[in-house]
Amino acid sequence: MPDLQPWQWALGAVCALFVGVAKTGMPGFGFSAIPLMELAVGKAGPSIAWLLPILCVADLFAIAYYRRQVYARRLFELAPWVLLGGGAGVLALRLGKDLLRPMIGAIVLVMLVVHLVRRMHPDRPVPTDWQHGARYGVVAGFATLVANAAGPVMSLYLLSKRLTKEELLAGGAWFFFLVNLAKLPIYGGMGLIDRRSLLFDLCMLPAVAVGAVLGRGVMRRLPQSVFERLMLVLAAVSALFLFIRR
């Protein structure tokens, strides 16, 4: 088992709880997951690799809850653009995260402003052109590769499609499950995921399950309009957080 202090185990459980809530009830709520995991595992290992299996399990809860929402299947249209953005992210990694994270934060804030301007014209048709999906897909792929920050990007994309709460959560769950699943063999091949990290993740599963149940309960009680406003606020907070996170 990982040699962690009791407070570190407790902090890891809080992180897993937040991830569960974010996946089934409030996308963007998990923006604090990475810094919490960094504090929880300390020098025991790379926090994002220890967090990745937890994210995958939480995605599965969301997929199971919202499995009847068919819009999620259309997200496969974003796949080539996400891969393109991820490839650009690999090339950009040499620039360093201290430069890339604020860059992504600025891009997300610009996207947020554009989205708010569009909302001022409710009679405007829902964007269906391939350029719209390409822009969001490239930025999402780039953001998830260099800073694990695709959450606010995808939230804005799904909101732009004027989806219901359930469709939005289902779409996000499928998108991030496939992205996170693709990362597992990469991190495993690099030795970032090992027996200690997997044992830690196994211990965090009850907290993920509790968070998933809580998140679904919160989602059911939130009106659609309030849900969308909260998502916009959390997207903005996530973007601003990229400016201060190191």
Task: Tell me what you see in this structure.
By secondary structure, the protein is mostly helical. It has helices spanning 6-24, 33-41, 47-65, 79-92, 97-119, 130-147, 151-160, 165-189, 195-221, 224-244. It has one domain (6-244). 75% of the residues lie in helices and 0% in strands. The radius of gyration is 17 Å and the shape is globular. It starts with 5 loop residues before the first helix and ends with a helix.
Give a quick summary of the entry.
The protein is mostly helical and 246 residues long. The chain has helices at 6-24, 33-41, 47-65, 79-92, 97-119, 130-147, 151-160, 165-189, 195-221, 224-244.
Name its key features.
75% helix, single chain, 10 helices, mainly alpha, 246 residues, globular
Mean pLDDT over the full residue set: 83
Compute the separation of the termini in Å.
28 Å
Low-confidence stretches: none
Q: Please outline the major beta sheet.
A: none
Helix content range: over 70%
Q: Provide the β-strand percentage band.
A: under 5%
